[in-house]
Amino acid sequence: MSYNIALNFEDGVTRFVSCNEGETVLDAAYRAQINLPMDCSDGVCGTCKGACYQGGFDLGDEYIDEALSDEEVEQGMVLTCQMVPSSDCVVEVPVASTMCKTGNAEVTGTVAEVNLISPTSIELKITADDDLAFLPGQYVNIQVPGTEETRAYSFSSKPGSRDLSFLIRNVPGGLMSSWLVGKARSGDKVTLTGPMGSFYLRPIERPVLMLAGGTGLAPFLAKLEYMKANGCDLPTHLIYGVTNDDDLVCLNVLELLTKQLSNFTYSTVVSGEKSTHPRKGYVTQYIDDTHLNNGDVDVYLCGPPPMVDSVLGFFREKGFKPNSFHYEKFAPSTPADKEKVA
User: What is the mean pLDDT of residues 280-307?
Assistant: First the structure.
C-alpha cells in the first residue's frame, strides 16, 4: 500500500510523492529526487520541520523535544524524517521549492472541447497525457500555443482524472482568450505546469461558506465535486456574484449539486444596474448570521480584487473572525499587445 503526499512549498508550488507503507515522508521525497531540508534524519536537529493539518500519520517517539516540542505537535508540526503516513497527507514545507532542487511538474495535454458558455466565460476541457495530481482549489499555468506566455487557471474539475476542465474569463483582446475563441481546435496540444496555490480545500469539520465572484467560481466547482465524491454532511453555502445577468454560468451544475450533495445550498447575486435578477447588489449584502455561525465556520473566497477587498472590509467592520479564512484574488490579463501575467 502507498499514500499520496502533497508537499506544499512556501513559493506556492505543490509536488506529489508516493509514500510506501512504513516509509517516512523524507525518504519518499528523496526517492522522488526532492531534497527536503535535512541535517540528521534522526529526529535530533529539527531541520526537516514542517506542518501537517490533513491526513493521518505516526511520528513515533525517537525524536527529542529540542527538535519538536509537545506544543508544536499539538499545533500540527511534524518532522518529515520521522513522519510515517497512514493515509494521504498534505505537508507544508517552509522553504521554496527551488531550495529542494525541485519545481513545478509539467505535463502535456490535448484540447477536448472549447465552449463559449456565455459572452464572458469560456469552458476549456483538456485530456492530460499523464496523471496530474492536484488538490481541489489549486491552479496550473497553461502555455498559450505558439507563444512563450502562460496564464494561470484554477481547475473546475475534481482531482483523480486526466479529464480536466477550466472556467476562463473571455477577455477581449486577451492572449489566451483570443487563441481559445479564434484558433483553438479539438486535438490541439497544450502544456500545463503545476499544480500551485494554497486555496485548496481543508478537512471539513464545521460549516463552510464559499464566496465566488465571476470565473472565481471555478475552484469551488472542483471543491464541491470533491466533496460530492468523498461525502460531506455539514452545511455548505455558496454565494456567487457577477456583474451582469449573462455572466452567471454553470447554474445547472450547481442545481444538480444541491440534489447530490447533502446540506449544500447556493444563491446568486448580480450587481449591474440593468439586471433583472431577483437578488441585486453585492455578495456582502447576502451574507447573513446563519452563514457565519458565530465564527464556527470555514470561509473560502475567490474573485476579482475589488470583490475580495470588499469582503475583507465587511468582515473587519463586523469584527468577524471565522475559524479559518482562505482567499485568492485574480485579475484578467491585459490585451495581447500589452500582455503581462495577471
Answer: 95
d(CA 114, CA 145) in angstroms, rounded, equals: 14
The CA angle 161-166-172, to the nearest 5 degrees, is: 160
The region of weakest confidence among 2-6, 82-86, 263-267, 329-333 is 329-333
Pairing verdict, β 139-143 and 189-196: antiparallel
Give the pLDDT band (50/70/90) at residue 332: low
Strands 89-93 and 2-9: parallel
Helical segments of the chain, H only: 25-31, 70-74, 175-182, 218-230, 251-260, 289-292, 305-318
- Tell me the pLDDT band of 211, cut-offs 50, 70 and 90: very high
How far apart are the C-alpha atoms of 310 and 156, rounded to whole Å? 24
User: Can you list the domains of the chain with their CATH numbers?
Assistant: 2-100 (3.10.20.30), 105-198+333-338 (2.40.30.10), 208-329 (3.40.50.80)
For the segment 72-101, the average pLDDT, to the nearest whole number, is 96
Instruction: Show the cell assigned to 45.
Output: 536537529
Phi, psi at 211, each rounded to 5° = -125, 115
The Cα 105–Cα 191 span in angstroms is: 11
Radius of gyration of the chain measured on its C-alpha atoms: 21
pLDDT of residue 330 exceeding 90, the answer is no
Q: Which residues contact 321 (CB under 8 A, 6 or more apart)?
A: 295, 315
Task: List 89's β-bridge partners, or say none.
Answer: 5
In the three-class reduction of DSSP (H, G, I as helix; E, B as strand; rest coil), residue 273 is classed as: coil
| Strand ranges for the chain from DSSP E | 2-9, 14-20, 49-54, 57-58, 77-79, 84-85, 89-93, 105-118, 121-128, 139-143, 150-154, 163-169, 189-196, 208-213, 236-242, 264-270, 298-303, 324-329
Q: Which three three-digit cell numbers place residue 1?
A: 500500500
| Residue entry with cell 506529489 | 16
